[in-house]
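Q: Structure tokens for this one, please.
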Amino acid sequence: MNSYLEKVLTEVKQRNQCQPEFHQSVEEVLESLEPVFERDSIYKEAGILERIVEPERQIIFRVPWVDDNGKTQVNRGFRVEFNSALGPYKGGLRLHPSVYIGIIKFLGFEQIFKNALTGRSIGGGKGGSDFDPKGKSDMEVMRFCQSFMTELYRHIGDKTDVPAGDIGVGAREIGYLFGQYKRITNSFAAGVLTGKGLNWGGSLVRTEATGYGLVYIVEEMLKDNGNSFEGKDVVISGSGNVAIYATEKAQEMGAKVIALSDSNGYIYDPAGINLETVKCIKEVGRKRIKEYVTEHSSAEYHEGSKGIWTIKCDIALPSATQNEIDEDSAKTLVKNGVIAVGEGANMPSTPEAIEVYQKNNVLFVPAKAANAGGVATSALEMTQNGMWDSWSFEKVEAKLKNIMVDIYNTSSEVAKDYGLEGNLVAGANIAGFLKVANAMLDQGIV
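A: Here is the predicted structure, written as tokens:
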């Protein structure tokens, strides 16, 4: 990085101490932007970077709730409204014990550029809590969500900030959150949350969107390099919505998905993952992935989810959590012949892992491009809500596919324009930055 970018990064680290995930996400973007600042000084003169790395608003609040034993529990809630240059803040809510302000800021910062790449009129934001829904009853989850929304409602709106789901927040949680919002505001404002139930304002394909979109953009990258999913062995980490529907779409395209995981361990099925069994375990029973081996004798279960990257595969789709592939895991993937990596989770590869991919000519599409399908379809849900309309599965899926193809083409073309052909990390970062930065220039000092 040049001295100006280094100065901005140093200030970010000084002002946001003990937030390594946020530092990592900012550094990754800034490293890509040097050719932009060399070409045009206007962004430096206008202080765009200094503004874009600082959230417009950070909200932290107490979330008290009562468990099934009648005992009061207290969690911490967060909403970071990062950048609204392109539209209302848009980004999910994450419920997980690891959540703290640094995680939310990293996710919100990524969301700025990811949302810009979709071509939709949405800004970047993120939220959540250190509440853990695992092991909680439906009533406990409901009481938590109602308390959380009792504070959050005053900060959101269909033209202000539109949350959605993320880790720990699915259809159940969105339902409880929306019900409380409706109760407090006395209004059925369908556009205030996305990921809603299909019979009360939700969109078809939203559940499948991130996983489908991941496969669509990786397929486009493979096609651009004379290849495809057909006949490939695929390893996918995670077993939530992203992993399940990436598996579904990869199988439709002729690939064999041979491994999935959860936070405890991973399953390896050389015969190919039976998706119906996984859906029954994870979506219906809310059980651990190890249950799979009781139904399929061809499968093995291994404790420790990191070991999934030792499995020989052609395509890897990390779809669990941040920094799950480190340098050693990336080297193992390369040694075992991986040809492509697509990030379904947010920032699942460390900087060292990405360097390994690039040095070994592994095709790589980063998270802010690869997993944009979820927020893109959330934006399509917002459009349908604004029209009081509902589109068919085929119409939404076609729009999703077009968006993902456009993201790939835009990232690829921008990388080439800046002398970085084939580097989709740089292409996605630069393309997203330019769209947001130019909007900020048009709007003055805000």
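A few notes: The longest strand covers residues 72-83. Residues 211 and 246 are 4 Å apart (CA to CA).
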